[in-house]
Specification:
By secondary structure, the protein is α/β, with parallel strands linked by helices. The chain has 24 helices and 24 strands. The chain has 4 domains: 138 residues, YbaK protein (Alpha-Beta Complex), CATH 3.90.960.10; 229 residues, Rossmann fold (3-Layer(aba) Sandwich), CATH 3.40.50; 100 residues, Tyrosyl-Transfer RNA Synthetase (Orthogonal Bundle); 79 residues, Structural Genomics Hypothetical 15.5 Kd Protein In mrcA-pckA Intergenic Region, Chain A (Roll), CATH 3.10.290. Helix 15 runs antiparallel to helix 18. The longest helix is centred in the middle third of the chain and has 21 residues.
């Protein structure tokens, strides 16, 4: 069984219950698991060279016999399924092939150890197993013009309440989709980029994109994924935060009141009396149903204060946001991170239950057509929370995270994540993404990382800042040579003349020191670390040196009293704090 195969190799996986019998069809399993059909694995068997080869592929695709014969030999023939196939579904190592299109999905669902269960595994967990792979399938149906299939192909989607409705809605230019953002700070961080890019892709595909900044829900705070209640925000905090978030969203989504809208849910909640809120919404939300939601159950199972009544109301408010937008904006799709599944499903359920009723003096007509989509969980190379570094969050606001540090965050992407991140965080065509990531050599992987860093930084901070980051990184580490320039130009990310005109700027921390000063022993390494902003204080710089984390030109600094070494005018000296924070001294 596949569970044994994964367990023997130390690959973590889930065993979601779907309640279907062993003989359930892939479509039935997809619907029961709330996942796209493309994520459900099926097996086609072939006889080739006196052996049987099992091809594992997505249920939305069909084996391409010509490609199979090119891979296995001209005598390869498909075998009819037999009742005994389920006894040995996926485990014969030497007789198992995985379709590359299937492994490009964020996660896949395969036959479980028994009826009623499936094995769900993140495909990044399979990357280190050296699985035999090949491009051996073709689409079972031609791709649609729906933004849903764009998001699916690019690796966004995790779960969906109704795939057929989602595809139809996101293919209809009259229908809008929305994502909510809580104004907890005056800047979003890279953890918010996935839903932002989803809205951008929706708009580019001809759909209407709505970003809802929670001026009302921000007063409460979303308990999803949190171990404790959020800090309260004042109305002034929220107003300032919303202004910053609005600026950042406009870099990705065109806000024009035709295809792109920025709304504040305080518009419809601010004047609602408490008793009216409870009477209109409370009856639709059984407490047992709410506490069974993953976002609440996790908090209830932990020791501590548990949940407050205030936090329970967040789900009611977000659910009504969805129903109201459906009636007033023809917004039938809500999207969000995987931690929002419970909140999004609550909106779908509210619409279904309230259809035909009146909520806050408005008839609910669209409630039966609502669809929820969540996006796949992203992790960093070490398996931790995406967007977190040793220095904290990586922000979209340049005063919080410089363009150079932002660039370096993406350049330091783990090898197994490069292809996925190119699909999610750039607008590059997926054929180009696949081509960039088809070569496993170190040179090819580094080129893909350079393109990723440049493309994402240009979107967030503009092309000039991205070019400056390239120049700074090249001065520090080399690289970014002819292959990078040629690829960036070929992909339309920059023109050849742009590289010639670019020069290092202040995106990377840099200071200028006279050669004469260096000759006298000034500054000390502690002073240089502080002046470059690589540490917050001289005491932190001293601790960094004592712990062996300070380097000058890749030589570890051992003495807390050490000075920056002398150098000739025109030279550059690289100072590193920890693994990934760099600064540069230009000697004049």
């Amino acid at each position: 069984m596949i569970a044994d195969f994964l367990k023997s190799r130390g690959v973590p996986f889930d065993l979601p219950t779907h309640g279907k019998p062993t003989e359930a069809t892939p479509i039935e399993l997809a619907q029961a698991l709330n996942v796209p059909l493309a994520y459900v694995g099926t097996v086609a068997r072939f006889s080739a060279d006196n052996r049987v080869v099992a091809l594992v592929h997505g249920a939305d695709r069909r084996p391409d016999l010509e490609a199979v014969r090119a891979k296995l030999g001209p005598d390869a023939q498909p075998l009819a399924a037999t009742p005994t196939d389920d006894a040995r579904p996926l485990c014969p190592e030497t007789d198992l092939l995985w379709d590359v299109a299937f492994l490009r999905r964020p996660s896949v669902c395969l036959p479980g150890p028994g009826g009623g269960q499936a094995v769900r595994v993140e495909t990044r967990r399979l990357a280190g197993l050296g699985l035999p792979t090949a491009a051996l399938t073709r689409r079972a149906a031609p791709p649609s013009n729906s933004a849903y299939d764009v998001l699916l192909e690019r690796g966004f989607i995790d779960r969906v309440t109704d795939e057929d409705k989602a595809r139809a809605h996101l293919g209809n230019p009259a229908v809008a989709g929305y994502v909510g953002f809580d104004p907890t700070a005056d800047s979003l961080h890279v953890g918010s980029l996935m839903p932002i890019m989803a809205l951008a892709h929706l708009q580019r595909a001809g759909g209407k994109a709505i970003a809802v900044v929670g001026g009302a829900t921000g007063m409460i705070g979303d308990p999803s994924g949190k171990t404790a209640m959020r800090q309260f925000l004042t109305a002034d905090n929220i107003k300032a935060n919303m202004a910053g978030i609005s600026r950042q969203l406009s870099a990705y989504v065109r806000i024009d009141d035709r295809t792109g809208f920025l709304l504040d849910n305080a518009e419809w909640f601010a004047d609602v009396p408490c008793l009216l809120f409870l009477r209109e919404l409370g009856a639709y939300f059984p407490i047992r149903m709410m506490l069974n939601k993953e976002c609440f159950r996790a908090r209830m199972e932990r020791e501590g204060e548990g949940l407050t009544y205030l936090e329970l109301t967040y789900m009611l408010m977000q659910a009504y946001d969805f129903v109201r937008l459906a009636e007033t904006r023809h917004c039938l799709v809500q999207m969000g991170g995987s931690d929002q599944w419970g909140n999004i499903c609550a909106g779908v359920e509210l619409g279904r239950k309230a259809k035909g009723d009146t909520l806050f003096s408005q008839k609910v007509r669209q409630g039966g057509t609502l669809v929820g989509i969540t996006f796949s969980l992203l992790r960093n190379a070490a398996g931790g929370k995406f967007g977190k570094t040793e220095s904290g969050n990586v922000w979209l606001e340049e005063r919080l995270t410089s363009a150079y540090d932002f660039f370096q965050f993406w350049r330091n992407t783990g090898d197994i994540d490069v292809e996925r991140f190119l699909g999610v965080f750039t607008f590059l065509p997926m054929d180009d993404v696949a081509r960039l990531c088809s070569e496993p050599s170190a040179e090819a992987v580094n080129l893909a990382k350079e393109i990723l860093a440049f493309a994402v930084t240009a979107l967030a901070h503009g092309q000039s800042e991205a070019l400056a980051a390239v120049q700074n990184a090249q001065a520090l580490f080399g690289g970014y040579g002819d292959a990078f320039r040629h690829e960036a130009v070929r992909l339309g990310l920059a023109a050849e003349a742009d590289f010639s005109a670019a020069a290092p700027q202040g995106g990377m921390n840099a200071i200028e020191i006279a050669a004469a000063d260096l000759a006298t022993g000034r500054p000390t390494v502690i002073e240089a670390l502080t002046q470059l902003g690589l540490v917050r204080s001289k005491s932190e710089a001293r601790r960094l040196i004592q712990q062996g984390g300070a380097y000058i030109d890749e030589q570890r600094v051992e003495d807390t009293d050490a000075s920056v070494p002398p150098a000739e005018p025109g030279a550059t000296i690289v100072i590193r704090a920890g693994k990934k924070k760099h600064g540069m001294i230009r000697v004049s």
